[in-house]
Specification:
Number of domains: 4
CATH topology of the largest domain: Heat Shock Protein 90
Bound molecules: adenosine-5'-triphosphate, magnesium ion
CATH superfamily of the largest domain: Histidine kinase-like ATPase, C-terminal domain
CATH class of the largest domain: Alpha Beta
Number of helices: 16
CATH architecture of the largest domain: 2-Layer Sandwich
Strand order of the largest sheet: 2-1-5-4-3
Helix content: 40-55%
Strand content: 15-25%
């Protein structure tokens, strides 16, 4: 609380809380005028509002003795004090609350945009599977000298570009299937460094500051490579005249205070990956929007604005968080924090790919989208497989109950009406233990897929897929090379 002289705007009295909030001693306060705390302009405005309505605005920005700007909710009344006219101000520091509100708004916005993007991407993926799939079928059916071959090829190419875009949107909305592994980020950075150097050109110096004994993280290596690439490309673009680009790794322990001031972070031991540049930096309005999909300040054709959205989605889905520090003209540092785990890195056995052999097996296909189902059926029949197909789970059950021979593979959509793909697979495998399962989906509800993939002999194919990728995956699963299976001889 303050009391100040309405004529001279000098402080007459302050309470203890004001002393500790503003950092001035009582004696110092008495030497000050309102303008020393509000600034000349706001002090004039306050005086004017007091004299005209007696009801000044309630939110002000004050400066403390240390020079810190704080946001203050204020109520001022005119009183008599020592026989003169004075203002009694009751103040509350709302700086932290306002910042948290702003972060919450930001998080809610990202959540909403993510739902929208994920929903569109899902339906779009189904359509793209059909477009590129049939495009490819037409293309491969046309004789090499057919004038329409070129047109078909363009359709397939455009479809693939669109699929790449939808993949980024799915990444942003945290709906892609991650294949996490225990990783050493230093190894990942080193493995990419030659490529990164080539990417940024000769005018930019690449510095690696890698901490020894870096903690391990559990994340999808392909996705983390994408994170690093996106950050490095942004840093490069911010330094058109050249500069220094630093990639740093470190073990950090985020404390409660730091985590609380960054809504997306949690306290605890983290592995940090930071990309810094000495480029043109960002102003506040850019910083406020940079994770939004399609937000870009680059000229059309130079950026789509999906880079940081993808980074955001991947890191959040991997249980981590992000922090961006940037000022105009001061360069930018983006820090990625991932949970640190206590497990050794698993080195992978070399994957031996089988030559594609013609199919002879019987496959039960369940997919409610008729066009996708037809495409999958036709593709696999061309490979020589015998196909039984159903448009929904109950029909699939009936077919499985009545079919006399053995069914080597079940291919099923994950999200279906009535019974989920996972539940259907459980029922069918329960009766036919020899049957393997291949899930396909464009909408990757991770919990369903995770629980499905934990079953033995199952694998996952992300929509949209090309007929070639489908045939390859089916072969791999049948030959015991599916993602979650042990090798079978
Ligand atoms: N290191 C940086 N320095 C300055 N500005 C940056 C930096 N990184 C990102 N930005 C700003 O954030 C915006 C969004 O970045 P984002 O990576 O999402 O999209 P983009 O780089 O514009 O396009 P895309 O990554 O899809 O090619 C950029 O357009 C730029 O204004
Ligand atoms: Mg970018």
């Amino acid at each position: 609380m303050w009391i100040f002289d309405l004529e001279t705007q000098k402080f007459l009295a302050v309470n203890k809380a004001a002393v500790s909030l503003y950092g001035y001693k009582r004696t110092e306060f008495r030497q000050l005028r309102l303008a020393d705390i509000l600034g000349e302009e706001d002090a004039r405005r306050l005086a004017k509002e007091m004299s005209t309505s007696g009801m000044p605005a309630s939110l002000w920005r004050h400066r403390t003795k240390a020079g810190r700007l704080i946001e203050v909710e204020t109520a001022v009344h005119e009183i008599r004090y020592d026989g003169g006219r004075a203002g009694l101000a009751v103040l509350m520091d709302v700086t932290d609350r306002r910042r948290l509100e702003e972060q919450l708004r930001q998080a809610q916005k990202m959540e909403a945009v993510g739902m929208l993007a994920g929903g569109v991407a899902h339906d779009f993926n189904n359509l793209l599977t059909i477009i590129t799939g049939y495009g490819q079928l037409i293309f491969s059916n046309l004789p090499t000298d057919d004038p329409n071959r070129h047109s078909a090829e363009q359709i397939v190419k455009a479809g693939e570009r669109a699929a790449a875009l939808t993949r980024q949107l799915l990444a942003f909305s945290r709906r892609q299937v991650l294949q996490p592994k225990v990783l050493d980020l230093n190894m990942l950075v080193k493995a990419l460094s030659t490529m990164l150097q080539r990417l940024i050109g000769e005018d930019i110096e690449l510095r690696l500051v890698l901490t020894n004994d870096l903690g391990r993280v559990n994340a999808d290596p392909g996705q983390l490579e994408q994170v690093l690439m996106n950050l490095v490309v942004n840093a490069r673009d911010a330094m058109p005249q050249g500069g220094t680009l630093t990639v740093e790794t470190a073990n950090v322990n985020l404390d409660e205070d730091y985590a609380r001031s960054h809504l997306a972070l949690k306290a605890g031991p983290r592995v940090m990956l930071a990309v810094s540049d000495t480029g043109y930096g960002m102003d506040e309005s850019t910083r406020a929007r940079l994770f939004e999909p399609f937000f870009t300040t680059k000229t059309p054709g130079k950026g789509t604005g999906l880079g940081l959205s993808t980074v955001f989605g991947i890191i959040k889905q991997s249980g981590g968080g992000l922090d961006v520090a940037s000022e105009p003209g001061q360069g930018t540092t983006v820090r990625v924090y991932l949970p640190s785990i206590n497990q050794p890195v698993v080195t992978e056995d070399e994957v031996v790919h089988s030559a594609s052999s013609p199919g002879t097996e019987t496959i039960l296909l369940v997919e409610d989208d008729e066009m996708v189902r037809t495409l999958v059926r036709e593709t696999l029949q061309r490979e020589g497989y015998k196909l039984l197909d159903a448009s929904e789970p109950l029909e699939a059950r009936r077919i499985a109950d009545n079919y006399k021979g053995s069914i080597q593979l079940l291919i099923t959509d994950v999200v279906m009406p009535k019974i989920s793909g996972g539940a259907l697979a459980k029922q069918i495998v329960g009766q036919r233990p020899e049957t393997k399962v291949l899930y396909m989906s464009g909408y990757t509800d991770t919990t369903i897929i995770k629980s499905g993939l934990e079953q033995e002999n199952s694998a996952f194919l992300q929509k949209p897929f090309t007929p070639h990728a489908l045939a390859q995956k089916v072969r791999d699963v049948l030959e015991g090379d599916g993602r979650t299976q042990g090798a079978r001889k």
